[in-house]
Amino acid sequence: MASNISRSAVALLSGALFAVGLGVAGMLNPANVRGFLDILGNWKPALMFVMVGAIAVYAIANQLSLRMQKPVLDKDWGNLPKTGFDLPNQAKLGAVLFGVGWGIAGFCPGPAIVSLATLNPTVIMFTVAMFVGFYGFAIYERMKANRAK
Amino acid sequence: MMMALYGGLIIGLAAALLMIFNGRIMGISGIAGTFVNMIFTPSARRAQAGEFGWRAMFLLGMIAGGVLLSKFSKVFTEASMVATDPVTLIVAGLLVGVGTRLGWGCTSGHGICGIARFSGRSIIATVIFIAAGMAAVAVANALIRTAGGN
User: Fold this and answer.
1) Which of A91-95, B1-5, B45-49, B64-68 has the lowest mean pLDDT?
2) Residue B15: which of A50, A58, A96 has the nearest Cβ?
3) Nearest chain B CA: its distance from A142 CA (Å)
4) What is the predicted pLDDT for the residue at B145?
5) Of the candidates A80, A106, A145, B43, which lies 20 to 30 Å from A23 by C-alpha distance?
6) What is the pLDDT of residue A88?
7) Residue A87, φ and ψ in degrees, nearest 5
8) Where do the domains of chain A lie?
9) Are B135 and A101 a contacting pair at CB < 8 A?
10) Smallest CA–CA separation between B89 and chain A, in Å?
């Protein structure tokens, strides 16, 4: 029980820290994101450094985790995704759809959820549609699994 | 540029905390997508009993972080939207929602955690969604120019 509370506290802190990081990085400004993706126009490459900074820190944490038997507060590493180059075509199509939506609105999932705090109707419309997409996909997966039975 | 780097370091730290302490990947589309499915599908929640609470807390943390930013920073007042038309927003939101689930992840899960874990599939996905985003922006700009808009 106590470990449940500590795990929840870490998740809460991680979520809040992530939000602040997005804010500091400039990821909460859709115009900034659009500038990063506007490689054929007025390209603003600065957001590349968000990935550089985040990957640098996380690569160290990942190396550390590989030397740990289990996480500090949990009994296992859950179902850690595999790391091979095996991305099926369907998933590649998903990445294309995501990229197009990201380019159109300037929001990816993290900033869309954090920006709900503004109660801005534009943000709410996008983010609700995104959640409908999440859930719609879950229903589709379930239907596919049922048919396969 | 330096702010982007600092922000990235903070984001990396947030992801590192979740990995080292809880052993979970900080992929937002996975966390939020599984969460919403668990909300509406009790059987999915029962199937993974210990996996609901931390997701709820993480998302709550994100909103709390957003509230803090809106109270103590100018990031939201300085932000400007690039799409405001409702139909465009809904189409874009659906594309991001379905696309990230179909594509096994988004900017955080693939672009940060996956690449830092030297995951081949994440490198491929990240290249694809950034390229698709760049293509979408180029097409949108061309359409605006043809329409004689700004």
Assistant:
1) B45-49
2) A58
3) 10
4) 85
5) A80
6) 96
7) -110, 110
8) 2-148
9) no
10) 5
